[in-house]
Write a structure and sequence with these properties.
It is a single chain. With 103 residues, the protein is mainly beta. Strands 4-3-2-1-7-6-5 form a seven-stranded antiparallel sheet, with helices on one face.
Length: 103
């Protein structure tokens, strides 16, 4: 897994995550927060297929959700175009606060 960082960009936090494409499809990957943007990089055969680069100015809302009683926490990023990007990850609150602070 490799991302091309921009000038003066550095990784602040990263974690294992899954991108929820619909109610039945999960794409395993890494959610990476830098000091300039948010990245999602797919792994396990999904490298390059579902990779995302999200600039803070494109994020309208940062919302939290739970998937069931015993499942992991989720983070929903709503873009300025109204698209929803749902991720499951540990430390949801910490990542949510960091992303909201960038916007």
């Amino acid at each position: 897994m490799k991302i091309d960082l921009k000038a003066n960009e550095m990784v602040v936090k990263a974690t294992d995550s899954s991108l929820l494409l619909n109610t039945s499809e999960k794409i395993a990957g890494k959610l990476i927060i830098t000091n300039q943007r948010v990245y999602f990089i797919g792994i396990n055969g999904n490298a390059g297929k579902h990779d995302l680069e999200i600039e803070p100015k494109c994020i309208r809302d940062v919302l939290y959700f739970n998937q069931g009683i015993f499942s992991r926490n989720g983070l929903n990023l709503v873009t300025s175009e109204g698209n929803e990007l749902k991720f499951t990850l540990k430390q949801r609150n910490k990542f949510g606060e960091m992303i909201a602070g960038m916007c």
